[in-house]
Amino acid sequence: MNNYYQNKGFSVKVYTQKNLSINDTLVENDFFILKTKKLQFLYAGYFLESKGIPVIPNTNISFKCKNRIEASFLLKNLSFNVPQILLGSYEALQKNLDKLSFPLISKPIMGSGSRGVKLINSFHDIKRDFNKIFYLEKFITGIHYLVYFINDRICVGEKIPLVNEHNSVKVIETPSDIRDIIFKWKKAYNLLFGHLDIVRETSSNKLYIVDPGSFPEFSNWKCEDEPISMICDLIIERYKNIKKNTKIQG
Amino acid sequence: MIKIGLIIDKYHLEKKVKEFLQYLKTVAEVSIYLEESLLLDFSRLNFNENIFFVKGKGELILNLVKLIENETSIPVINSSKAIRLCFDRFLNSVLLKKIGIEVPDFSVNPVGVSPPFNDYIIKNVIDQKNYTFTPKIQSKNGHLQISDERALNEVIGGKQNYQFFYYQRFIKSKWEYKVYSIGENFYFYKQLPVLINPDKIKSREEINPILELKEIVIKIKEILDLKITSVDFLKSKNGKFYVSDVNSTPNFNYIKNGPKIVGNFLIEQAKR
Description:
Chain A is α+β, with helices and mostly antiparallel strands. Chain A is 31% helix and 23% strand. A five-stranded antiparallel β-sheet of chain A has the order 9-8-7-10-11. The radius of gyration of chain A is 20 Å and the shape is globular. Chain B is α/β, with parallel strands linked by helices. Classes of the chains: A alpha+beta, B alpha/beta. Chain A binds chain B through residues 17-25, 39-40, 43-44, 46-47, 50, 69-70, 72-73, 76-77, 84-89, 91-93, 95-96, 99, 109, 133, and chain B through 35-43, 58-60, 63-64, 66-67, 70, 90-91, 94-95, 97-98, 105-110, 113, 115-116, 125, 162-164.
């Protein structure tokens, strides 16, 4: 992205965890691209937006995609199926063993992708930690899809469950029910691009959304068209629209 | 009888609400949702309360409140928005500053990068746990540099895996002012700052209402969606008040008849 923008004549400054200080000195660019959802970067996003500087994708949608509970509300509000969620302390899980139906998946509340994700086949797989609130999801048995979208382009890959975005996938034609979900998701939250991890449950053939992402790596985009240029152009277009609307409102 | 759900953690249940519960049980039916023993199943909801009251700010509490808000129309005091914005020092400072409320200058900096001011306090950016401020005070070239042990622990060796510190400019103030608000009622106190006297309650005294502070608290309640709160202020040498802390679960036991006032407020809200 950096190269693409620089080749087009834009001046780009890259902020990482090591050089990102959030105070008035940060307000020196026309707009910001929020590529990571770590807390430090979300703070930068909220700070910049409070100063009227555009952040793309917007900070709140990035935060909500990162927070699995907020993400489940975003999805449920569109009537999408999401896996059953359980939340509780070690003590509470132990006391309610009869209510737990294994296998479950343990995930961090704040997180995306496969980082920190663990399959729980029995209570013994849950780490004894009395200071933690566990987030558990029902494991949906079925076909797992990694679904990318950039504007109106959709690229679907079948993948092995519980692996990260970068593991190889088998590209397939986009099923119409998945296409409908993507367009509804994209339209409802005014998204330019992103991804959804979707599972088609074997027993019911229902689609469950197990993870949304606001800015994936697109490392498994194996469809025609090159993702970087499409994404970069969309971001510039969005920035121009924001500026235009700000001028009209002003 | 009005049904009140109390969403609470063990710490608050054991130490902070004895009198409040005693009173509440005389005027309402109370059900307790205890963070440590509750298994929250997002697909099975069965609430029959008229109102919920929250005493705590832990992860399960916050998410239970979000769930109630998302799936029902039962009022919750305080809301998940209020809870989150109060315990996240950075976010509340950004919001308050945006609407013109004075907060001490603040900066988030990667470890090893100094903030753009010399006298500062390093604070824990997410103030979600029930533990107290343990300051480490240093003087460097005539400048005061204070750090909260919790903040250092979060970054160095903590579970949070932060790579940054949250700095707040140090405001020298003779007194710390505290304003409690329960609905439309306001209560004013002052006490010696914790850095001068760690036993802040010992020096606390009730003071006459300060209109300027009341107006600020009204604005804060609106922007942070708070119904019950306490707000701390520092007063600089030139007489300017700075908001140093906003609390979504204030200890109302310090207010005369506090537990009764809060209980009656909840009943009144439930009847609306």
